[in-house]
């Protein structure tokens, strides 16, 4: 069973974050430059405060229009976060994402932010798990014949 820790070992522990006072145009520039769908919001001590996703920006644009561009990350961020730990399994992460309708899980070890996984990371890990299982079954069947 694959754990989030294994995903982070493979993809790395780098976390892309912005300050709470970062203006929305800066947030969107970071998202575009990094090719990511969400950015964490952290304070000077790297404490996790929230997350801003493309979806948050689009929803705000639909409600507030151009005023969204005058907002800060802190004003736009989602504050109640769904998180994982390094010991969270891929299956548990999928369930968390589905039940909470989120695409990104900050990974916390205690109070310390140690990474972030996306739905793409989780799906890729699940596919790899299934491929390994199929290969094992094929080996078992061909060895038993």
Key features?
49% helix; alpha+beta; CBS-domain; elongated; three-stranded mixed beta sheet; two-stranded antiparallel ribbon; 145 residues
Structural features, described:
The protein is an alpha+beta fold and 145 residues long. The protein has one domain (4-144): CBS-domain (Roll). Helix content is 49%, strand content 18%. It contains 6 helices and 5 strands, in the order αβαββαααββα. A 3-stranded mixed β-sheet has the order 1-2-3. A two-stranded antiparallel ribbon has the order 4-5. α5 (90-100) crosses α6 (119-144). The chain starts with a helix and ends with a helix.
Number of helices: 6
Q: Order of strands side by side in the largest beta sheet? A: 1-2-3
Estimate the strand proportion: 15-25%
Number of domains: 1
Overall CATH class: Alpha Beta
Largest sheet: 3 strands, mixed
Shape: elongated
Instruction: Assign the CATH architecture.
Output: Roll
Helix content: 40-55%
SS-based class? alpha+beta
Q: What is the N-to-C succession of helices and strands?
A: HEHEEHHHEEH
CATH H level, superfamily name? CBS-domain
Compact summary:
By secondary structure, this protein is α+β, with helices and mostly antiparallel strands. It has helices at 4-11, 24-34, 54-64, 73-76, 90-100, 119-144; strands at residues 17-18, 38-42, 48-53, 104-109, 112-118.
Outline the secondary-structure elements.
Elements: H1 4-11, E1 17-18, H2 24-34, E2 38-42, E3 48-53, H3 54-64, H4 73-76, H5 90-100, E4 104-109, E5 112-118, H6 119-144
Helix pairs in contact: 5-6
